[in-house]
Amino acid sequence: MAGKIIFRNPLSFQNGTGFTTDPSNTEVNALTPVTFTYSIGQAVSPSSSVVFGAITSTDKFTIDNGSMILSNGGITGSFTQTGYQNIQSNLTVDGNVTIDGILIAEKVETEVSQAVTLFESGSTLFGDTLGDVHYMTGSMYSSGSLTLNAGISIIEISNDTTLADESTTAVVTENAVKTYLSDQTNTFDSYHRKSFAHTGSYVAASTASFYAVTASAPSGFTATNEDDFMFFVNGAIAEHDALTVQQSGSKFYMLVNNNSVGYDLESDDEIVAWGKFDNQYYLDLDGLTHEVTTTFSGSSATWVPVTYSWWMKSDQTTKNYAVFGYGNNKKAFTTNFSSNRPLMWNASNWYVFWDDTSAQDDGEWHHWMLYNQPQTLSESKLYVDGVLIDINLVRETGTLGTQNQSLTIGSYQNNSTNAARHFSGSIREFAVFGGDKTGNASLIYNSGVPYNLSDESDLQGYWRMNEGSGTTVTDLSGEGNDGTIDGATWNYVF
């Protein structure tokens, strides 16, 4: 009986004046077919003239039981569907639909504002099974937290490039991670653990030393001990229970227990260590043509007070033109210039001498820090290994000029093949700061261990010279004045 409708108060036909029905007062429904005979009390023939008291006519079939009208193509009023209703084609509802039970649909679509569309690929409930796939077009705003399967709550997506909050409820963006790692590269790279073999020198009967920086130097790294190294004495491996390692500034000591080794060290004994040393690169300059040219402070720059910081070593005891300069020998710093005195020459008859210092020519690494105050030379300062060198002579009878060229390291004039204009020795960690930074001379000297200056304030130019290969030294100040190596060669020290 699918598709048949039975009213709660079904339609029935009853006898009336001049009208009879057989049967009479019987309900009409689709379950029990009934044949009705209607009589009007007079003969009816093709030629008869029959008159009814009232006739109601309509173009559509209509059944009206007083509370609901069922007509051809529509239902007016309300009704309750308690059974199963199968609609094979489209159902269009102009008003509201109230469903007290469960609505099961393969696909539901709406066209009102902020509507939700659930596709066939998933269920109508988010997350009822792990196999559900739900698609969403556009963005999603969540005013609360999002809890994932493992019970982890996420309350934000963070773009904090410092990662300073250390939040346990934030997911970071790609930009935040990339920026943070880029900012940490210089600090980490300085002491990235590497393994090298190195030969020590005899110090005493129970000590061998190494000019080295080990991976124990920076905070946050695991402390270095004898287990991080293998030591060989005259080619024979030394047992760890006979050794103790000790770092003192840039010196790395291996202390030997003579009773465990079986003999005292002698001056011709060779000690070789293999382990976690951090080798530092630098540039060797031959004093003939080698130099590093930069784009720092061009030809239009005027002399202003700045501080220079660098590490160098040299064994040349005569005039050593020039550690750095700006296109002219009267715009450069030179060691052993006259009577073994270092000189900062700013212009003709405009210079300052400092006292002689053995750091100019002893062939060892030293840290130099020079504050050049060209307007008032007596305020200039020179520090070597954190110690102030006394001013020897000041001359201010000339006229202070402008710089002819950009900064050249290792010569006072770039692109020059004149040997009398170049520095002979080794240089690394060359930096320029605005103003007087010599108050940090002892700190930057750091007991003889160079460190990365990228985070120091007032930094205007910084060439670490730690690339180890190639012809470019990067300006780590962020100003973009990279240096170009002309002839200088790479070397390294442990």
Helix/strand layout:
Layout: E1 11-13, E2 20-22, E3 26-28, E4 37-39, E5 62-64, E6 68-71, E7 74-77, E8 146-147, E9 153-154, E10 156-158, E11 170-172, H1 174-190, E12 196-204, E13 207-211, E14 229-233, E15 236-237, E16 243-248, E17 251-256, H2 258-261, E18 271-275, E19 280-286, E20 291-293, E21 306-313, E22 320-325, E23 332-338, E24 341-347, E25 350-354, E26 366-372, E27 381-384, E28 387-389, E29 391-396, E30 408-409, E31 424-434, H3 441-445, E32 459-463, E33 472-473, E34 483-486, E35 489-493
Parallel strand pairs: 10-11
Antiparallel strand pairs: 1-3, 2-4, 5-6, 6-7, 8-9, 12-13, 12-18, 13-17, 14-15, 14-18, 16-17, 19-31, 19-35, 20-30, 20-34, 21-26, 21-31, 22-23, 22-30, 23-24, 24-25, 25-29, 26-27, 27-28, 31-32, 33-34
